[in-house]
Amino acid sequence: MNQRARPGAVFLFTDYTHLGPYVGHLHARLRQAFDSAPEVVDLMHDAPAFRPDCAAYLLAANLKYLPPDAVVLAVVDPGVGTERGGLALRADGRWLIGPDNGLFAVAARDFADVQAYCLPPPPPGTPATFHGRDVFADAAAEVAVTDRPPRGSEAVETWVGHRWPRDWDALIYTDGFGNLISGRRGETAPDQAELVVGGERLARAAKFADVPAGTAFWYVNALGLVEVAVNSGSAAQRLAQGPGAVLDWRARG
Predict the structure, then answer these.
(1) Report field, pTM of the whole predicted structure over 0.85
(2) Which residues, listed in sequence order, are joined to residue 71 by a DSSP beta bridge?
(3) How many separate helices (H) and strands (E) can be counted in the chain?
(4) Distance (Å, rounded) from C-alpha 42 to C-alpha 14?
(5) What integer is the mean pLDDT of 66-72?
């Protein structure tokens, strides 16, 4: 791995939301770490809050749409300040930087060449509640420039969640329209099956316009994941379900 001719773009994936100064602090820290301002892209800041298990499946689905040299600074970290470690994971040229709590476990299974490194402990005096800014942003800036593991890191063979299943029949995310995204890839879903969610039995449709307004259905979304939606409505409100709810596949009858 050699130093890059130009820094790789840094993509931010967090559960911080845009409320408060937290996202702005990530941008500021990254700018301070480079001689010139890096390209920083806000991929999303409403990842499933406090749920690295749910966020792991959503992050994995997004990665294939990022440049091959992307650096992803990802933080969904309810254990911030505890004994949980930090992880730098290189997957077929992309770098993922963040907490070792399962957030990168699903993404790691999609790549042939994966190397993982445990980040060194934060130095004394580091604030305990904002490692996204004070630990992970610096590591992300370093690998964006060098394309090498952060200084002081050590290679590891396993990480939290490395045995998690590649598909998870559960809801992982509610988007701004009230659509419910799952951890099941469409390519592995039972094609003709119906899906029971919130007590309703839902048929598959290819797109919203294929069903009448107000009808709930399931489909494969643009990320390649099974999603539950209501045409011109909110599935989250209609079905009263959210992240963690289990999907129940039924033979079409």
Answers:
(1) yes
(2) 10, 95
(3) 6, 14
(4) 9
(5) 95
Please, which residues have CB within 8 angstroms of residue 229's CB and are 6 or more apart in sequence? 177, 179, 180, 208, 216, 217, 218, 219, 235
Alpha carbons within 13 angstroms on the beta-carbon side of residue 244 total 6
Q: What is the mean pLDDT of residues 201-226?
A: 98
Q: Residue 176 and residue 88: Cα distance in Å, rounded?
A: 30
In whole angstroms, what separates CA 70 from the centre of its chain? 14
- For residue 136, the SS3 value is helix
The residue to which tokens 């299943």 are assigned:
165
SS3 (DSSP) at 150: coil
Task: At 188, list the tokens.
Answer: 């592995």
> Hey, which residues does 89 pair with through a beta bridge?
96, 116
For tokens 């042939």, the residue is: 112
Residue 77 per-residue DSSP state = -
HSE, CB side, 13 Å, CA atoms: give it for residue 86: 30
